[in-house]
Amino acid sequence: MTAPRPLRILMLCHSFNSLSQRLFVLLKSLGHEVSVELDVADSVTEEAVALFRPDLLLAPFLKRRIPASIWRSTLCWIVHPGPPGDQGPSALDWAVLDGQARWGVTVLQATDELDAGPVWASAGFDLRDTSKGELYRHEVAQAAQTAVAEALQRLQAGGLQSGGAENGDRPGPHAPKPHWRALMRQTDRAIDWQRHSTAEVLRRMRSADGQPGLVDQLFDLPCRIWDGHAASAELMLSLPSAAPGSLQAQRDGAVLRRTVDGGVWIGQACLADTAPAPAAPLPSGSPSPRFKLPCSLLFSEQCSALPTRPATLARDPAEWGELHYAELGPPDALVGYLSFDFYNGAMSTHQCRALLAAIQQTNLRPLKVLVLLGGRDFFSNGIHLNCIEAAAHGLGEDGAGSAADASWHNIHAMNDVALALITTTDRLTVSVLRGNAGAGGVFLALAADEVWAHGEVLLNPHYKNMGNLYGSEYWTYLCPKRLGQQGTEQLMRQRLPVSARSAEQMGLIDRCFTGPPSTWDAQVTEQAAWLAKAYNLPERLLRKQEQRASDEAARPLADYRQQELSRMHRNFYGFDPSYHVARYHFVHKLAHAWTPRHLAIHRT
Ligand code: COA
Ligand code: THG
């Protein structure tokens, strides 16, 4: 049997989000020629189809209707985050809110009726009790890859003779019963604090994760909220009794709100368009922010009256907190595990400083190996663009008076974390990417001796997409060590997502776990324990110390930092406003006006 001919595939997306990127790297790894067009306007999509003449148009994340002028002449597939038969724009939201036990992803053909076309393939998964965003980036992405790969096999097995739906519908393997579910409204998931249990509140919040968030009130101001976590029973017992709905404490940027049977930590909020400014001392002229922020930053004035209830580092993981530390293994082969589960992987100045303090605390422990686990959902996405943007609204961390100052503080704080890792030479350090990493978050990972990744992780190891940012985190030291100068330049120039597997192949990371996802955590502990008790560990550490000393003699780390930061200073404070414009667009989620040329290869 001859290998099927590669296809020309045009991806049409509302934005080039994590699911689109996962399918992009899958299609490229299968040898197809892939171009991307963002869904700006029908006429622009028609132009893209005319230019690229794709065999297939694939829509992994599309909110608008594909016009008949396109789906009648070109085979178009929709990746729908629901099982066969499920239809509508809020598929995952409903699945989470309804507490479904199993869910799925369907590849269906676009026709006139939304989500009702022939099914080409589907894949199912068990629905974990977690947020929509996390499901979307893990289970949904995984099932989407399986279903798209299967649909492509069917397409290639049947040849390309039948194009659009009109020249011969090809019914899928199943004939699902259609079930339309309308757009979820805020009233469908509204919280009644006088009535709903903690579990009920969390389910409602989790159904709204990412977008659109859940409409509620904090400090009597209408807002949308995200990032809910159950408070422990011990903590609730330690607090004065209060009516359900009362705000009682703060921790790690979150506020604690009492429910009828416990409490919920609320991490993030965004003021409703109708809400007045949250705090009196906003500098005159600065509009109040209308984007997602940590609650304690958005409501800093109100939060000053709430007691802070910090979580200790090494504690029962059931007690929620962003940072967590645990040790495993015998005293002579002790492994420390430090996780930093920051919402969306974004790391503000405060969060970087807290992480640095935690790393310094672990330095006092007699460890052989320190494992940096990042967060469950993301390893890290670098500096916190929303917190930086907040400075332009008079809400900068530490009183940063401008977004440029806030960016400057944040990158210094990130660099301090990277520096602490690079200069830890009395033990081995390992970064474990359990979720995606982007920009500075990738290079932070490279500051460890070894970098391992879960099999389905996606990396975006470049900075330029954020208004041509130069980048720091010692990338000019760390990346050439792994890829050489040429490889580094190519990676930075390409600005494309990279799968963990290809990152391993190119030498950017050391190990990518295979096998079922349920085994990855166990593989991490097994491998880390093995490193810690390896007979040659003392020699390895000696070599590491010698290498660091000779690197330092050749060119001090301070020099790398200074060179990178001089370029970043220009990005933050210079004449070219590209970074500030790009960040503004990103944080405010403004619609794309065009597709970046490095994605739309049909336009180059
Ligand atoms: N600083 C601050 N924020 C950062 C950041 C940084 N350095 N890096 C990333 N982020 C944020 C992004 O702004 C985004 O914010 P959000 O929580 O407001 O969405 C978040 O991290 C995740 O990044 P992104 O890549 O944009 O999204 P995703 O693809 O990983 O996540 C969902 C997707 C589920 C969260 C969300 O986009 C969604 O609801 N999608 C719906 C999909 C769907 O059901 N479609 C049906 C039609 S077919
Ligand atoms: N056929 C065609 N185009 C499509 C799909 C299709 N485009 C993408 C679409 N499937 C993905 N699924 C949906 C399903 C429903 C809705 C949007 C995308 C939807 N939208 C409402 C609207 O646009 O008015 C309301 C949504 C809103 O208000 O945000 O119902 O199968 N040709």
Helix content: 25-40%
Question: What name is given to the CATH topology of the largest domain?
Answer: 2-enoyl-CoA Hydratase, Chain A, domain 1
Average pLDDT reading: 94
Can you identify the CATH class of the largest domain? Answer: Alpha Beta
What count of structural domains? 3
Number of helices: 20
Sheet/helix structural class:
alpha/beta
Bound molecules: coenzyme A, (6S)-5,6,7,8-tetrahydrofolate
- Which regions have little confidence, pLDDT < 50, spanning 5+ residues? 159-171
Identify the strand order in the major beta sheet. 2-1-3-4-6-7
Into which percentage range does the β-strand content fall? 15-25%
Total count of strands: 24
Through-space gap between termini: 35 Å
CATH architecture of the largest domain: Alpha-Beta Complex
Radius of gyration: 25 Å
Question: Judging from the principal axes of the Cα atoms, what is the shape?
Answer: globular
Major sheet attributes: 6 strands, mixed
CATH homologous superfamily heading of the largest domain: 2-enoyl-CoA Hydratase, Chain A, domain 1
Q: What would your notes on this structure say?
A:
α1 (18-29) links the parallel β1 and β2 (33-38). The protein is built from 20 helices and 24 strands. The strands form five sheets. The protein has a six-stranded mixed sheet, sandwiched between helices. The chain has 604 residues and is of the alpha/beta class. The chain is globular, with a radius of gyration of 25 Å. The protein has three domains: 8-184 and 595-603, Formyl transferase, N-terminal domain (Rossmann fold), CATH 3.40.50; 188-303, Methionyl-tRNA Fmet Formyltransferase, Chain A, domain 2 (Roll), CATH 3.10.25.10; 323-516 and 538-573, 2-enoyl-CoA Hydratase, Chain A, domain 1 (Alpha-Beta Complex). Residues 17-19, 61-62, 80-81, 89, 91-92, 132-133, 136-137, 210-211, 292, 344-346, 381-386, 438 line the site of coenzyme A (COA).
